[in-house]
Amino acid sequence: MQPISQVEGSFTDVDGRYVIVVGRFNHHVVDSLVEGAVDSLVRHGVNAEHIDIVHVPGAWELPLAVKRALKVVKPDAVIALGAVIRGGTPHFEYVAGGCNAAMSNLQLEFDTPVANGVLTVNSIEQAIERAGTKAGNKGADAAMAAMEMVSLLRQFGGEA
After folding, report:
1. Residue 91 annotated as catalytic
2. Annotated binding site for 5-amino-6-(D-ribitylamino)uracil: which residue ranges?
3. Residue 146 pLDDT grade (very low, low, confident, very high; cuts 50, 70, 90)
């Protein structure tokens, strides 16, 4: 029996163009996510001049800006960052669900990684934990996922 070949991404050969699209709403949390993402990219060899940061009002607006970046900039990957914190109305579900579904669809439509670093949490305390305290920095995690996918897709070569 032939062994099954394995392909996986690494964190080498990840330099390229990255666009970070950031929802400003809850900026006191999101700013830390951006810092974590940029730090992670640069530490792994991405030239800081190849990182574009685009600001939008909030998570609901992220998919449109991500789509435009994919069309116009044609980056190697996009990293979407934001924070949706549950409140007393169903607004949370609509914003979080719509944003997540759209991000998934965009990466398939454009055959380009879209790393989802949008926090969907029940409290401000949970958001702060995920923006660089107890639970790590989810912005850095999203950047790592983006780089790993860039590396993985490069191994396949060619156009999809």
Report:
1. yes
2. 25, 59-61, 83-85, 116
3. very high
Q: Burial-class residue 24 by CB neighbours within 10 Å (0-12, 13-18, 19+).
A: middle
Which residues make up each annotated binding site for (2S)-2-hydroxy-3-oxobutyl phosphate? 88-89, 130
The helix (run of H) or strand (run of E) holding residue 154 is: helix 138-156
- Domain residues of the chain, as ranges? 39-45+61-85+97-118+138-151
Q: How far apart are CA 21 and CA 7, in angstroms?
A: 29
Please give the model's pTM, rounded to 2 decimal places.
0.91
- Alpha-carbon distance 139 to 37, whole Å? 5
* For residues 63-80, average pLDDT: 97
